[in-house]
Amino acid sequence: MLPPTEEKLATIHIASFISSSLLGAGLLSLPRNVGEKVGTPDGWVSVLITGLLFMLIVYVMGKLCAFYPGETIYQYSEKIVGKGLGWIFNLFITFYFLIQAGILVRLMSEVTKMYLLFDTPIQITIGLFLMVVIYLVFGGIYPIASLFLFILPITMVILIIVLFLSLKTFDIKQLRPVLGLGIMPIFKGIIPSTPVYAGIEVILIISASMKDVQRAGRASVAGLIIPILVYTMVMVVVVGSLSIAGISHYLWPTLDMIRSFEIRGLIFQRFETLFLAIWLLQIFVTIVIVFYGVVLGLSQTFGKKINGFIFGMLPVVYVLSLIPKNVNEVMKWSDFVNTLSLILYGITFLLLLLTIVIRKKSRRNIYLESSEMEKMMNEDVSLR
User: Fold this and answer.
1) Which ranges of the chain does DSSP label H, i.e. alpha helix?
2) pLDDT tens, 161-187?
3) Per the record, GO CC terms (predicted)?
4) For residue 112, how many C-alpha atoms fall within 13 Å in the half-sphere facing its CB?
5) Structural domain count, the chain
6) Which domain holds residue 89?
7) What CATH number does residue 213 fall under?
8) pLDDT tens digits for range 335-361
9) Taking Cα atoms as reference points, which of 97, 98, 99, 115 lies closest to residue 28?
10) In the chain, N or C terminus with fewer CB closer than 10 Å?
11) Residue 9 forms beta bridges with which residues?
């Protein structure tokens, strides 16, 4: 069951939920991942097109949620495909969230160690970070949504400031010629762009707490607009500053671009620490929601209280985060999670189709029963 809450989520909560869930790890690695595949300065077009495709996907998810107000995907999946297949799907999505949580925690600790806490073991960083995560998860969905709504404007203000100041190293010639090698390189960048939009599936969980679930699709699309604009801007600014050839030499191109300049006379002469601060906030909120997805899924699938699963899954996420030996292995795991997300989107589309078919069949049966009843009543009247 959902943790008890007296307040329901408004449309703005849902939009901020979607935006906050997506503005995480992709801020650092997106330019390199897409740029290497595209091979031209047109990677920003790939990111933009992928974002528009995900608008359609998240709208489909919202329409599915609208058929089952007050319920999460873990509850209505069994109504659609039966208890057996419903359990399998529930465990699949729970596994997806679990692996994602482990990877994000490890990524957070690696970046923190590389740029902030050089001598602190990642085991300590991971442990302390997870303690903060479960503290917020215990509060339930409304406190989580309220925190996301508070953090998102701060993140956007700092991101806009940092990207604007990065124009000091920006050269528009690095983005030319547009479509110099045609449109085919753009399609090569679509798959590498998809990981940054992984996170839209949270609508399948949080819609159960909405005041008006009929607006789930539109609220999700609205929330997706901010990440699309941010990631497109990041691609443009980073490639324009480091060049398409230069970004392949950096593990985290966005961060290295910010480190490449300083502005004297301001409170902050270098901005990587400020950027890392808001990035850590965003990675934190992403981990919170995926961890919440894990424990909620187990709770609703097995019909047990959520608190036990919160404590039980904490060491599991901790161990999973330590399995990758280095950053390269973390990236390989990320590719695996991306594959799982694409499978999840396909299954969600099938669930919507099945729901529509079931609803039409149900309405048809009701109509036939009503017609049969009316016919019997007419015959009875005629006999009298």
Assistant:
1) 11-22, 26-38, 43-66, 73-81, 83-115, 122-139, 141-165, 184-188, 190-193, 203-206, 216-242, 253-259, 272-302, 306-322, 327-383
2) 888 888 878 888 888 888 878 888 899
3) membrane
4) 23
5) 1
6) 11-383
7) 1.20.1740.10
8) 888 888 889 999 999 999 998 887 776
9) 115
10) C
11) 210
